[in-house]
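so my prof wants the structure for this chain in the C-alpha coordinates format not the other one, which i didnt know existed until like an hour ago. anyway here's the sequence
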Amino acid sequence: MSIINKVLNDLDKRNQHNGSGGGHGSAVAPPSRSGSRLLWLLLVVVMVTVVAVGYYVWNNASVSSTSQATEPVQQRPSQQPQSERSEPVKAAASKPDTGSDKRVAEVAEENEAAPSRVAELELPEPIAVEPTLNEQQQSDDTASESEQRASTGSFSKQSVQLTAAEVAERQRQKAEQAQKQGLFTDAASHYEAALNAQPQWHDVRKEWAALEYGRGQTTQALAILREGLQQFPQAHSLRLLAASMLEKQAQPQLALQLLVQHQPAATELPQYYQLQAELAQQLDDNDAMQQSYRALVNAQPDNGRWRLGLALALREQHPQQALAEFEQAAARIEHTPTLNFIAEQIKRLRSQHATSTP
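here's what i got, hopefully its the right format
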Protein backbone atom coordinates (compact mmCIF):
# COMPACT_ATOMS: atom_id res chain seq x y z
CA MET A 1 0.00 0.00 0.00
CA SER A 2 2.98 2.34 0.40
CA ILE A 3 3.49 2.15 -3.41
CA ILE A 4 -0.04 3.53 -3.92
CA ASN A 5 0.72 6.42 -1.59
CA LYS A 6 3.91 7.21 -3.54
CA VAL A 7 2.00 7.16 -6.82
CA LEU A 8 -0.62 9.53 -5.44
CA ASN A 9 2.06 11.86 -4.11
CA ASP A 10 3.81 11.90 -7.50
CA LEU A 11 0.51 12.71 -9.18
CA ASP A 12 -0.11 15.58 -6.79
CA LYS A 13 3.38 16.97 -7.39
CA ARG A 14 2.98 16.76 -11.17
CA ASN A 15 -0.37 18.48 -11.02
CA GLN A 16 1.06 21.26 -8.91
CA HIS A 17 4.07 21.62 -11.26
CA ASN A 18 1.88 21.74 -14.33
CA GLY A 19 -0.39 24.31 -12.75
CA SER A 20 2.49 26.64 -11.78
CA GLY A 21 4.47 26.35 -15.01
CA GLY A 22 1.66 26.61 -17.58
CA GLY A 23 -0.36 29.66 -16.64
CA HIS A 24 -0.82 30.59 -20.28
CA GLY A 25 -2.35 27.25 -21.35
CA SER A 26 -5.43 26.96 -23.47
CA ALA A 27 -8.94 26.41 -22.26
CA VAL A 28 -8.68 22.68 -23.09
CA ALA A 29 -6.01 22.03 -20.43
CA PRO A 30 -8.25 22.11 -17.34
CA PRO A 31 -10.54 19.43 -18.65
CA SER A 32 -7.47 17.31 -19.48
CA ARG A 33 -6.16 17.55 -15.90
CA SER A 34 -9.54 16.73 -14.39
CA GLY A 35 -9.98 13.76 -16.72
CA SER A 36 -6.53 12.49 -15.87
CA ARG A 37 -7.24 12.92 -12.20
CA LEU A 38 -10.55 11.11 -12.53
CA LEU A 39 -8.77 8.29 -14.33
CA TRP A 40 -6.24 7.96 -11.58
CA LEU A 41 -8.97 8.10 -8.95
CA LEU A 42 -10.85 5.34 -10.74
CA LEU A 43 -7.66 3.30 -10.86
CA VAL A 44 -7.20 3.76 -7.12
CA VAL A 45 -10.78 2.67 -6.43
CA VAL A 46 -10.29 -0.45 -8.54
CA MET A 47 -7.07 -1.27 -6.74
CA VAL A 48 -8.70 -0.72 -3.36
CA THR A 49 -11.58 -2.96 -4.38
CA VAL A 50 -9.19 -5.68 -5.52
CA VAL A 51 -7.24 -5.42 -2.30
CA ALA A 52 -10.43 -5.54 -0.22
CA VAL A 53 -11.75 -8.56 -2.09
CA GLY A 54 -8.40 -10.35 -1.75
CA TYR A 55 -8.28 -9.56 1.94
CA TYR A 56 -11.83 -10.79 2.39
CA VAL A 57 -11.08 -14.08 0.61
CA TRP A 58 -7.83 -14.55 2.49
CA ASN A 59 -9.47 -13.78 5.81
CA ASN A 60 -12.27 -16.28 5.16
CA ALA A 61 -9.75 -18.98 4.28
CA SER A 62 -7.78 -18.32 7.47
CA VAL A 63 -10.86 -18.32 9.70
CA SER A 64 -12.24 -21.50 8.12
CA SER A 65 -8.95 -23.33 8.71
CA THR A 66 -8.93 -22.11 12.31
CA SER A 67 -12.53 -23.17 12.94
CA GLN A 68 -11.78 -26.69 11.70
CA ALA A 69 -9.17 -27.08 14.44
CA THR A 70 -11.65 -26.09 17.15
CA GLU A 71 -15.04 -27.39 18.24
CA PRO A 72 -18.25 -26.26 16.49
CA VAL A 73 -19.13 -24.19 19.54
CA GLN A 74 -16.13 -21.95 18.85
CA GLN A 75 -17.06 -20.95 15.26
CA ARG A 76 -19.43 -18.14 16.16
CA PRO A 77 -16.87 -15.93 17.95
CA SER A 78 -14.45 -16.26 14.97
CA GLN A 79 -17.03 -15.03 12.45
CA GLN A 80 -17.87 -11.82 14.26
CA PRO A 81 -14.53 -10.05 13.54
CA GLN A 82 -14.96 -10.84 9.82
CA SER A 83 -18.19 -8.86 9.57
CA GLU A 84 -16.64 -6.05 11.57
CA ARG A 85 -13.61 -5.91 9.28
CA SER A 86 -15.64 -6.22 6.08
CA GLU A 87 -17.78 -3.17 6.90
CA PRO A 88 -15.00 -0.60 6.35
CA VAL A 89 -14.04 -2.29 3.11
CA LYS A 90 -17.60 -2.13 1.80
CA ALA A 91 -17.86 1.50 2.84
CA ALA A 92 -14.63 2.32 1.06
CA ALA A 93 -15.82 0.60 -2.09
CA SER A 94 -19.25 2.26 -2.10
CA LYS A 95 -17.98 5.87 -1.60
CA PRO A 96 -15.26 6.77 -4.20
CA ASP A 97 -14.83 10.43 -3.24
CA THR A 98 -11.93 12.74 -2.56
CA GLY A 99 -11.44 11.26 0.91
CA SER A 100 -10.41 7.91 -0.55
CA ASP A 101 -6.76 8.54 0.27
CA LYS A 102 -7.54 8.52 3.93
CA ARG A 103 -9.59 5.34 3.63
CA VAL A 104 -6.83 3.68 1.62
CA ALA A 105 -4.42 4.43 4.43
CA GLU A 106 -6.87 2.97 6.98
CA VAL A 107 -7.27 -0.15 4.86
CA ALA A 108 -3.51 -0.47 4.67
CA GLU A 109 -3.22 -0.20 8.43
CA GLU A 110 -5.90 -2.84 8.87
CA ASN A 111 -4.07 -5.12 6.45
CA GLU A 112 -0.93 -4.75 8.50
CA ALA A 113 -2.81 -5.50 11.71
CA ALA A 114 -4.78 -8.37 10.19
CA PRO A 115 -2.11 -11.06 10.64
CA SER A 116 -1.92 -10.35 14.34
CA ARG A 117 -5.72 -10.58 14.65
CA VAL A 118 -5.81 -13.81 12.72
CA ALA A 119 -3.02 -15.14 14.89
CA GLU A 120 -5.15 -14.41 17.89
CA LEU A 121 -7.95 -16.50 16.36
CA GLU A 122 -5.80 -19.44 15.31
CA LEU A 123 -5.39 -21.07 18.73
CA PRO A 124 -8.33 -20.18 20.95
CA GLU A 125 -8.60 -21.56 24.43
CA PRO A 126 -10.55 -24.85 24.53
CA ILE A 127 -13.98 -24.40 25.98
CA ALA A 128 -15.10 -27.13 28.36
CA VAL A 129 -18.57 -28.14 27.36
CA GLU A 130 -20.69 -28.56 30.46
CA PRO A 131 -22.73 -31.76 30.62
CA THR A 132 -26.43 -31.46 30.23
CA LEU A 133 -28.76 -31.97 33.15
CA ASN A 134 -29.69 -35.50 32.12
CA GLU A 135 -26.07 -36.56 31.63
CA GLN A 136 -25.05 -35.06 34.94
CA GLN A 137 -27.97 -36.70 36.69
CA GLN A 138 -27.12 -40.06 35.14
CA SER A 139 -23.50 -39.75 36.20
CA ASP A 140 -24.56 -38.79 39.71
CA ASP A 141 -26.94 -41.74 39.85
CA THR A 142 -24.22 -44.08 38.62
CA ALA A 143 -21.76 -42.69 41.15
CA SER A 144 -24.27 -43.01 43.96
CA GLU A 145 -25.07 -46.59 42.92
CA SER A 146 -21.39 -47.51 42.81
CA GLU A 147 -20.82 -45.90 46.19
CA GLN A 148 -23.81 -47.72 47.59
CA ARG A 149 -22.59 -51.04 46.21
CA ALA A 150 -19.12 -50.41 47.57
CA SER A 151 -20.48 -49.45 50.95
CA THR A 152 -22.84 -52.39 51.14
CA GLY A 153 -20.13 -54.76 49.93
CA SER A 154 -17.65 -53.53 52.53
CA PHE A 155 -19.81 -53.14 55.62
CA SER A 156 -22.95 -55.21 55.14
CA LYS A 157 -23.39 -58.14 57.50
CA GLN A 158 -25.67 -60.84 56.25
CA SER A 159 -27.28 -63.17 58.76
CA VAL A 160 -27.27 -66.87 57.91
CA GLN A 161 -30.14 -68.97 59.19
CA LEU A 162 -28.72 -72.16 60.71
CA THR A 163 -30.65 -75.34 61.10
CA ALA A 164 -31.29 -76.85 64.51
CA ALA A 165 -28.75 -79.57 63.81
CA GLU A 166 -26.09 -77.01 62.88
CA VAL A 167 -26.77 -75.01 66.02
CA ALA A 168 -26.54 -78.13 68.16
CA GLU A 169 -23.29 -79.21 66.52
CA ARG A 170 -21.70 -75.81 67.10
CA GLN A 171 -22.75 -75.83 70.73
CA ARG A 172 -21.39 -79.33 71.14
CA GLN A 173 -18.02 -78.32 69.73
CA LYS A 174 -17.90 -75.31 72.03
CA ALA A 175 -18.76 -77.53 75.00
CA GLU A 176 -15.99 -80.00 74.21
CA GLN A 177 -13.49 -77.19 73.75
CA ALA A 178 -14.50 -75.57 77.03
CA GLN A 179 -14.28 -78.92 78.79
CA LYS A 180 -10.72 -79.43 77.53
CA GLN A 181 -9.82 -76.01 78.89
CA GLY A 182 -11.31 -76.85 82.28
CA LEU A 183 -14.24 -74.46 81.87
CA PHE A 184 -16.82 -76.94 83.10
CA THR A 185 -19.56 -74.41 83.78
CA ASP A 186 -19.29 -73.03 80.26
CA ALA A 187 -19.21 -76.55 78.87
CA ALA A 188 -22.42 -77.42 80.73
CA SER A 189 -24.11 -74.31 79.32
CA HIS A 190 -23.12 -75.28 75.78
CA TYR A 191 -24.35 -78.85 76.27
CA GLU A 192 -27.67 -77.53 77.50
CA ALA A 193 -27.95 -75.20 74.49
CA ALA A 194 -27.21 -78.10 72.16
CA LEU A 195 -29.97 -80.20 73.76
CA ASN A 196 -32.41 -77.34 73.51
CA ALA A 197 -31.81 -77.33 69.77
CA GLN A 198 -31.73 -81.13 69.37
CA PRO A 199 -33.20 -82.91 72.43
CA GLN A 200 -32.97 -86.30 70.69
CA TRP A 201 -29.18 -86.19 70.65
CA HIS A 202 -28.66 -88.74 73.41
CA ASP A 203 -24.89 -88.74 73.06
CA VAL A 204 -24.80 -85.05 73.97
CA ARG A 205 -26.99 -85.72 76.98
CA LYS A 206 -24.71 -88.53 78.13
CA GLU A 207 -21.65 -86.31 77.73
CA TRP A 208 -23.30 -83.61 79.78
CA ALA A 209 -24.34 -86.12 82.48
CA ALA A 210 -20.84 -87.59 82.57
CA LEU A 211 -19.43 -84.08 82.98
CA GLU A 212 -21.67 -83.41 85.96
CA TYR A 213 -20.95 -86.82 87.47
CA GLY A 214 -17.23 -86.24 87.13
CA ARG A 215 -17.62 -82.92 88.95
CA GLY A 216 -19.31 -84.77 91.82
CA GLN A 217 -22.79 -83.58 90.85
CA THR A 218 -24.40 -87.03 90.81
CA THR A 219 -27.89 -85.73 91.49
CA GLN A 220 -27.61 -83.28 88.60
CA ALA A 221 -26.28 -85.98 86.32
CA LEU A 222 -29.16 -88.34 87.13
CA ALA A 223 -31.67 -85.52 86.66
CA ILE A 224 -30.28 -84.86 83.19
CA LEU A 225 -30.65 -88.54 82.28
CA ARG A 226 -34.14 -88.86 83.76
CA GLU A 227 -35.28 -85.83 81.78
CA GLY A 228 -34.15 -87.55 78.62
CA LEU A 229 -35.91 -90.78 79.61
CA GLN A 230 -39.14 -88.90 80.18
CA GLN A 231 -38.98 -87.53 76.65
CA PHE A 232 -37.64 -90.73 75.10
CA PRO A 233 -38.51 -93.83 77.18
CA GLN A 234 -36.88 -96.12 74.61
CA ALA A 235 -33.51 -94.40 75.00
CA HIS A 236 -31.88 -97.50 76.54
CA SER A 237 -28.40 -96.02 76.49
CA LEU A 238 -29.56 -93.27 78.86
CA ARG A 239 -31.15 -95.88 81.13
CA LEU A 240 -27.98 -97.96 81.15
CA LEU A 241 -25.82 -94.95 82.08
CA ALA A 242 -28.17 -93.95 84.88
CA ALA A 243 -28.16 -97.53 86.26
CA SER A 244 -24.36 -97.59 86.19
CA MET A 245 -24.24 -94.35 88.19
CA LEU A 246 -26.68 -95.79 90.72
CA GLU A 247 -24.62 -98.96 91.06
CA LYS A 248 -21.49 -96.93 91.77
CA GLN A 249 -23.45 -95.01 94.34
CA ALA A 250 -24.23 -98.33 96.08
CA GLN A 251 -27.85 -98.34 95.01
CA PRO A 252 -28.16 -101.68 93.15
CA GLN A 253 -31.86 -102.04 93.84
CA LEU A 254 -32.71 -98.71 92.18
CA ALA A 255 -30.40 -99.54 89.33
CA LEU A 256 -32.06 -102.92 88.73
CA GLN A 257 -35.52 -101.42 88.92
CA LEU A 258 -34.53 -98.86 86.33
CA LEU A 259 -33.23 -101.53 83.96
CA VAL A 260 -36.13 -103.93 84.13
CA GLN A 261 -38.62 -101.22 83.17
CA HIS A 262 -37.68 -101.59 79.49
CA GLN A 263 -35.94 -104.51 77.81
CA PRO A 264 -34.00 -103.78 74.60
CA ALA A 265 -32.76 -106.45 72.21
CA ALA A 266 -29.72 -108.23 73.61
CA THR A 267 -28.09 -108.24 70.20
CA GLU A 268 -28.17 -104.43 70.10
CA LEU A 269 -27.14 -103.71 73.69
CA PRO A 270 -25.62 -106.79 75.39
CA GLN A 271 -24.01 -104.69 78.14
CA TYR A 272 -27.52 -103.70 79.25
CA TYR A 273 -28.31 -107.33 80.17
CA GLN A 274 -24.85 -107.88 81.53
CA LEU A 275 -25.31 -105.11 84.10
CA GLN A 276 -28.82 -106.32 84.84
CA ALA A 277 -27.50 -109.86 85.49
CA GLU A 278 -24.74 -108.59 87.78
CA LEU A 279 -27.20 -106.49 89.78
CA ALA A 280 -29.59 -109.45 90.06
CA GLN A 281 -26.74 -111.67 91.28
CA GLN A 282 -25.83 -109.10 93.94
CA LEU A 283 -29.46 -109.03 95.09
CA ASP A 284 -29.90 -112.86 94.79
CA ASP A 285 -32.70 -112.30 92.29
CA ASN A 286 -32.53 -115.61 90.39
CA ASP A 287 -35.45 -114.79 88.14
CA ALA A 288 -33.88 -111.56 86.88
CA MET A 289 -30.53 -113.31 86.71
CA GLN A 290 -31.91 -116.20 84.61
CA GLN A 291 -33.73 -113.80 82.30
CA SER A 292 -30.65 -111.70 81.76
CA TYR A 293 -28.21 -114.57 81.06
CA ARG A 294 -30.70 -116.42 78.90
CA ALA A 295 -31.06 -113.32 76.72
CA LEU A 296 -27.29 -113.11 76.47
CA VAL A 297 -26.93 -116.79 75.56
CA ASN A 298 -29.54 -116.43 72.84
CA ALA A 299 -27.72 -113.39 71.48
CA GLN A 300 -24.20 -114.88 71.76
CA PRO A 301 -24.46 -118.69 72.08
CA ASP A 302 -20.72 -119.28 71.72
CA ASN A 303 -19.85 -117.11 74.68
CA GLY A 304 -18.85 -119.45 77.54
CA ARG A 305 -19.15 -116.68 80.12
CA TRP A 306 -22.87 -116.34 79.47
CA ARG A 307 -23.26 -120.11 79.64
CA LEU A 308 -21.56 -120.16 83.02
CA GLY A 309 -23.76 -117.38 84.33
CA LEU A 310 -26.93 -119.09 83.20
CA ALA A 311 -25.76 -122.36 84.81
CA LEU A 312 -25.24 -120.61 88.13
CA ALA A 313 -28.70 -119.03 87.88
CA LEU A 314 -30.29 -122.47 87.26
CA ARG A 315 -28.21 -124.45 89.77
CA GLU A 316 -30.64 -124.27 92.72
CA GLN A 317 -33.97 -124.48 90.96
CA HIS A 318 -33.13 -126.45 87.81
CA PRO A 319 -30.01 -128.62 88.47
CA GLN A 320 -30.31 -130.70 85.33
CA GLN A 321 -30.49 -127.61 83.13
CA ALA A 322 -27.63 -126.13 85.12
CA LEU A 323 -25.54 -129.28 84.51
CA ALA A 324 -26.04 -128.98 80.78
CA GLU A 325 -25.04 -125.30 80.82
CA PHE A 326 -21.93 -126.08 82.90
CA GLU A 327 -20.84 -128.64 80.34
CA GLN A 328 -21.43 -126.12 77.49
CA ALA A 329 -19.42 -123.49 79.36
CA ALA A 330 -16.50 -125.89 79.96
CA ALA A 331 -16.32 -126.53 76.23
CA ARG A 332 -15.98 -122.78 75.50
CA ILE A 333 -13.76 -121.50 78.31
CA GLU A 334 -9.97 -121.85 78.37
CA HIS A 335 -9.24 -120.13 81.68
CA THR A 336 -7.88 -122.86 84.01
CA PRO A 337 -9.19 -121.61 87.37
CA THR A 338 -12.61 -121.14 85.80
CA LEU A 339 -12.46 -124.63 84.30
CA ASN A 340 -11.58 -126.07 87.71
CA PHE A 341 -14.60 -124.32 89.21
CA ILE A 342 -16.84 -125.65 86.45
CA ALA A 343 -15.50 -129.20 87.01
CA GLU A 344 -16.36 -129.02 90.73
CA GLN A 345 -19.89 -127.81 89.91
CA ILE A 346 -20.42 -130.61 87.41
CA LYS A 347 -19.20 -133.22 89.93
CA ARG A 348 -21.47 -131.84 92.62
CA LEU A 349 -24.56 -131.80 90.39
CA ARG A 350 -23.92 -135.36 89.18
CA SER A 351 -23.51 -136.51 92.72
CA GLN A 352 -26.79 -134.90 93.72
CA HIS A 353 -28.49 -136.49 90.79
CA ALA A 354 -27.12 -139.95 91.75
CA THR A 355 -28.30 -139.70 95.34
CA SER A 356 -31.69 -138.46 94.33
CA THR A 357 -32.24 -141.37 91.93
CA PRO A 358 -33.53 -144.60 93.70
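also thought this was worth mentioning. DSSP finds 16 helices and no strands in the chain.
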